[in-house]
Amino acid sequence: MATGEVRPDREDVLSRARHGDRSAFAELVREHQSEVYTLALRLTGDRELAADIAQESFVRAWRALPSFRGDARFGTWLHRIVVNTAWSLRRRAGRHHADSIDDLPAAPPAPGISPERAAESAAMRPRLLEALGMLTPEHRAVVVLKDVYDWTHRDIAEHLGISVTAAKVRLHRGRRRLRELLWSELGGEG
Amino acid sequence: MSALCLVVAQRVPLTGPDGSFGATLDAHVAECLACQAEAARYRKLVRALAALADDLEPAPAGLATAVDAALDAADGRRRPPVTLGRVAAATGAVAATAAGVLAVALWRRARHAA
Question: Nearest residue of B to residue A46 by CA position?
């Protein structure tokens, strides 16, 4: 459930939370905390800051929950709050640097891809995260939202407060930089 | 490397490894091993990035409790809590200070014994 979809049997929990039930909201927090924290971490590359962003995102989500009409999935709606929160705290993000790859735990392969491809991606993961951490915050945010979370250029532009053209330019530059940083891992020669 | 290769290299980061570059460039890529290799590098990069989507990091211990406390504070039930990340930073600072005091004490004791 990578997109944070609320299961049908959990819709009552969401409904209760929307009507001000704190215990129901606490269940949603426990259910979505890992994906919220992960998104914050991918955007910032900083565990301490990501924890603060996750906490602030849930507080903002609680305040905005009465206005959640279910037009988008709850997980998608929550992701947008995380991005807005992370971006509003980007000045702090600029003072932080990415965690060492030694701090990164091993992760299971993503489902739905061949074992060979999963192994290939898993082998690249530490260097990929390190390389993401070396991008500028502006380039990293666009690459993460487009290539990891499959957002449209339009959504990225709207939530980062930039034009669609700027989003495309940042994606182009971010991917090119990653290609340079990961040259040997991508099979480059020389 | 031809001029067409340079155009492909410029466009592939945005078009994507499986996107179309237009008839002329597509025909070139179909014949050009260097451009195919470049597209393959981006294909591998995009695949590795997409794999991160299902790769959840465990949330820090205490996040749910910290959110609850923050909401309580907003309701005026408790004092405003410090945020989770700052708690970790403060804990680290206290530990570092304690280690420093201990080190000075040990150094003084060793010096006195000598």
Answer: B85
Q: Which domain holds residue B72?
A: 63-113
Predicted TM-score of the model (pTM): 0.75
Q: Is the dihedral of CA B32, A180, A124, A169 positive or negative?
A: negative
Interface confidence: ipTM more than 0.90: no
Question: Shortest CA distance to A36 belongs to which of A73, A3, A68?
Answer: A3
Residue B46: its chain A contacts at CB < 8 A? 147, 175
Q: Are both B50 and B67 inside the same structural domain? A: no
CATH 1.10.10.410 fits A103-181, yes or no: no
The arrangement of secondary structure in A8-94, i.e. its CATH architecture, is Orthogonal Bundle (1.10)
Map out the domains of chain A as residue ranges: 8-94, 103-181
On whether both B27 and B70 belong to a single domain, the answer is no
Domain boundary residue among B11, B26, B54? B54
B14 at the A interface (CB within 8 A)? yes
* C-beta atoms of A36 and B56 within 8 A: no
> Residue B88: closest CA among chain A residues belongs to which residue?
A48
By C-alpha distance, which of B88, B96, B90 is closest to A103? Answer: B88
Q: What would the pLDDT profile of B65-81 be if each residue is shown by its tens digit? A: 999 999 988 777 655 55
